[in-house]
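User: Predict the complex.
Assistant: Input components as received:
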Amino acid sequence: MSNISDWVRANIRSLKPYSSARDEYTGKVGLFLDANENSIGSVSDTKNNRYPDPHQSEVKAMISKILDLEEQNIFLGNGSDEAIDLLIRIFCEPKEEEIIVLPPTYGMYKVAADINNVAVTEVPLDENFDLDVDGILKAVKPNTKILFICSPNNPTANMMSPERVEIILQNFAGIVVIDEAYIDFTEKKNMLHAFKLYPKLVILRTFSKAWGMANIRLGMAFGDEELIRFMNNVKPPYNVNGVTQDIALNALKNLDKKDSMLKDIKEGRSVLINKLAPLPLIEKIYPSDANFILVKFWDSAGVFSHLLNHKIIVRDRSKQPGCENCLRITVGTKEENETLINTISELG
Ligand SMILES: Cc1ncc(COP(=O)(O)O)c(C=O)c1O
């Protein structure tokens, strides 16, 4: 099986996608009586009575310019969580096929597989939270369809080493998804354009992190034109609403603001690491390529409840494999970081 379509479920391969009113007439001027909208107007303050562009063409045009990609290589979804779900639905036959995930990692890969009744094989990351290449390749079975790699990884904050990713790409025949949700927070090399060499590679990104737009739910997938076409065939027609598209278009014109926030977040990350690392109640802080740090305490439960008593909420990751006594802490504003540091310092 070498072509993308060979890896796609038979029912998806033969799917005749829904054709919406906005697919059938794409002009902008006219008397629109084709979509059963409310022609008079909206109850909301802003004008929302028309269905949005199902292809998100203007947003894709801007993204393609910024990232130097063709529009056909871009999928936009209701958060990258939608892309994760769609990929599983496109490639994995429920009850028959499976995915591989690499814990500790982002939980939605497994949840999306569970919802779709697709089995999950777990191959833990190694002691440095890097890929266990042999373990992964040994875990591959004839019915393994997708491998999810999160890089930088949530919750461990590190990038996977590029040499190991390369070995996987050369030796795993199925679909490799590299989730780059946190890629803007590192200077290390990204894999965005690698799908041109490896057509079964999909890269995920999101507006929820560096762009600071988690509320509008906009995620991106980048890949080979054929693979992206399958994603567009399967998605609900209006999966990205018009309000989101308008806000994204404006944001994409304002790259300077993103860069300036990135600078502040990276500075905040350094302050957090430098101030927390010497505290005796901390065993270790893992290096971070993301907008959060993973901190290993001697007693994470005590720190967690102390913080909670001060209404400071961090993520308890201590039950994740390899993350005993670990809390995941998001970099906040300058003031929030100071409050966190002071509150943790109270414990000694
Ligand atoms: C690694 C990773 N991928 C994807 C997501 C979800 O992104 P979105 O908000 O675009 O659905 C998250 C959210 O925390 C994440 O940590």
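The longest strand covers residues 144-150.
Let me know if you want any component modeled separately.
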